[in-house]
Design the sequence.
């Protein structure tokens, strides 16, 4: 099996999608213009997909109240501190900055809606396809 996507039910999918496209560089791979307004966002490899949608049939999670160790979206950052500053100017908030023994830097933020977002600047990046 191969990973297809990870999905989040968010209250304002249109604003959330716009922020991820504008500030994370994701692109809309597929979308649905009627409820529940599913948007499949791809990273620049086109292989990793996150789905955002607004479906009131299930309660919207308390993303801001969830500890980032429960779940988080992680993205590669060549210069994590510069990306942190840029994303904070765009409405993200810092949760934790962690330097690992191998020299990697992990910065945990929350997007403007509280969803945990991790910036990964690894000394040994995961291989990409």
Sequence:
């Amino acid at each position: 099996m191969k990973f297809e996507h990870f999905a989040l039910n968010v209250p304002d999918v249109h604003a959330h999608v716009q922020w991820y496209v504008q500030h994370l560089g994701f692109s809309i791979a597929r979308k649905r213009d009627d409820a529940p307004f599913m948007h499949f966002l791809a990273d620049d490899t086109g292989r990793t997909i996150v789905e955002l949608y607004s479906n009131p049939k299930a309660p919207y999670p308390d993303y801001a109240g969830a500890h980032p160790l429960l779940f988080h979206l992680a993205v590669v950052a060549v210069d994590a501190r510069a990306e942190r500053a840029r994303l904070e100017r765009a409405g993200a908030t810092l949760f934790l900055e962690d330097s690992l023994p191998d020299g990697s830097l992990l910065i945990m933020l929350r997007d403007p809606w509280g969803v945990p977002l991790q910036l990964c600047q690894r000394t040994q990046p995961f291989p990409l396809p």
Notes: The longest helix spans residues 13-24. The chain has two domains: 1-55, 66-129. Helices lie at 13-24, 80-89. Strands lie at 6-9, 27-31, 39-42, 49-53, 73-76, 93-99, 105-110, 116-121.
